[in-house]
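Below sits the subject:
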Amino acid sequence: MKILVGIKRVVDYNVRIRVKGDGSGIETDGVKMSINPFDEIALEEALRTKEAGKADEVIVFSAGDDACQQQLRTGLAMGADRAVQIQCDQPLQPLTAARAMLALAQREEAGLVILGKQAIDDDNNQTPQMLAALWGRPQATFASSVDLQDGKARVIREVDAGLETIEVNLPAVISVDLRLNEPRFVKLPEIMKAKRKPLEVIGLEELGVSVENNLAVSDYTPPPTRSKGIVVDDTGQLVSELKNRGLI
């Protein structure tokens, strides 16, 4: 069985996000870029599944320009068998990304697609659900535990009321949550070996997908600066201050 894992190149979660002066986007020049943290967890789960003898091959893929090859090589260093770059020069919105993933899943005859539940740059949380709908296959979202047995996936999901256990037939789409696992640390020997692993580049048009952007972002604005707090002397002053600010 082949497992496909989607990874996205995003600004590292430790970096303080800065908006460009003209409000046209996020400042990325000289900024550290990394694999989306949720996608890193998805890849770790795929690797553990293969190591348990429940999968034959783990394939990482990403959509973007050549810069995303850095994150694909990191995925190969973690242990993926091969990588696929879907060449495109502009960010893909969720529906277009899902269509590209569907074409790749069908091309590879994947038995399972594992994705992060969302990317930390746009926080859409849409692509896994769209992929499952387009593919006509079951989905299990927000997974905190995954167990594959007899052509099925038993998934424990994190929901508002607590935990929910479901079972889906494979092929399926699984999106993962933060508490599923702890991604492994990549060592230098694995980074060197990753340079010799296959990385295929295919155009978006080769998958029969065209870019359709139905949403346009007009400008970006940083959040307002928080005002400084004050120190009150007693409860009466606290209540008075809250009333003055219209909070009570």
